[in-house]
C-alpha cells in the first residue's frame, strides 16, 4: 500500500501557532511588491541585453591554436 507523505499542512499549522505567518495585503506591502517587480523586470531586461552582446561578441572571436 502506498502511503503519501505531505507535511505542508502540518508545517503551516505549526507556523501559525508560533505567530510566524503574516499576510502582505496592506497597501504599503502591495506598493513594495509592485516596486520590486518593476526592479526585477529591469534587471532581467539588462541581463538579456548583456547576454545577447556576449553571444554576439563570442561569435566574432576566431580561435587559433
Provide structural commentary.
The structure is a single chain. This protein starts with 7 loop residues before the first helix and ends in a 6-residue tail after the last helix. The protein is flat, with a radius of gyration of 23 Å. The model has no long low-confidence stretch (mean pLDDT 91). The chain is built from 2 helices and no strands. It is mainly alpha-helical. The protein has a domain at 24-58.
Please give the largest β-sheet. none
Report the mean per-residue pLDDT as an integer.
Answer: 91
Number of DSSP E strands: 0
Shape: flat
Q: Terminal Cα separation, in Å?
A: 62 Å
What structural class do the secondary elements suggest?
mainly alpha
Our Rg estimate from Cα atoms comes to: 23 Å
What proportion strand? under 5%
Amino acid at each position: 500500500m502506498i502511503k503519501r507523505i505531505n507535511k505542508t499542512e502540518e508545517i503551516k499549522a505549526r507556523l501559525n501557532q508560533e505567530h510566524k505567518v503574516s499576510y502582505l495585503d496592506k497597501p504599503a506591502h502591495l506598493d513594495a511588491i509592485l516596486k520590486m517587480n518593476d526592479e526585477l523586470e529591469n534587471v532581467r531586461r539588462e541581463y538579456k541585453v548583456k547576454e545577447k552582446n556576449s553571444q554576439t561578441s563570442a561569435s566574432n572571436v576566431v580561435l587559433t591554436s
